[in-house]
Write a structure and sequence with these properties.
By secondary structure, the protein is mainly α. α1 (30-66) packs antiparallel against α2. It contains 3 helices and no strands.
Length: 155
């Protein structure tokens, strides 16, 4: 065994598999980024539609029928409405924004740049159209490939 191989990791890293969607390490392609963006938008639309047509509609119905009188179940409906309104308008969009920010950082990593470049105005829009590097870079292996990383040698 040669001296430079003595500290090598004894396994082959086969591809750029993401361990977690909520970690900023790694790279993703434009297609993956757009699919995740569409998923977030659809998820928020579904949650908002359920909120508007179920919770808000029931609350407005109780308000209209009651005319100031206390009705059976009105307190539960009002409490549910007042609890879920901030969730629909603030909590869910904030979680989806953080998720998409992490995905944007991975997209910038695909172009072999630091995620801090997202702070440059309009850079986040431009990076959507940039091609990623066609080989392994400082931020990970080429996404969607099955080739070995030369940095990891077998013993």
């Amino acid at each position: 065994m040669r001296n430079e191989d003595s500290g090598a990791i004894p396994y082959e890293k086969s591809n750029n598999v993401e361990i977690s969607l909520f970690q900023k390490n790694g790279r993703i392609t434009r297609k993956t980024f757009f699919l995740r963006l569409i998923l977030c938008v659809l998820l928020w639309i579904i949650i908002h539609i359920v909120y508007v047509f179920v919770i808000e509609a029931k609350y407005n119905e109780f308000k209209k029928i009651g005319g100031g009188k206390i009705q059976k179940g009105a307190a539960n409906v009002e409490m549910l409405y007042k609890t879920l309104t901030p969730v629909d308008y603030y909590v869910v969009p904030a979680i989806l924004f953080v998720f998409m920010l992490i995905q944007a950082i991975k997209r910038v990593h695909d172009t072999n740049h630091s995620g801090w470049r997202l702070l440059i105005p309009f850079y986040n829009v431009l990076v959507l159209f940039f091609n990623g590097t066609n080989e392994d870079n400082d931020y990970g292996l080429l996404p969607n490939t099955r080739k070995s990383n030369p940095k990891y040698k077998r013993n």
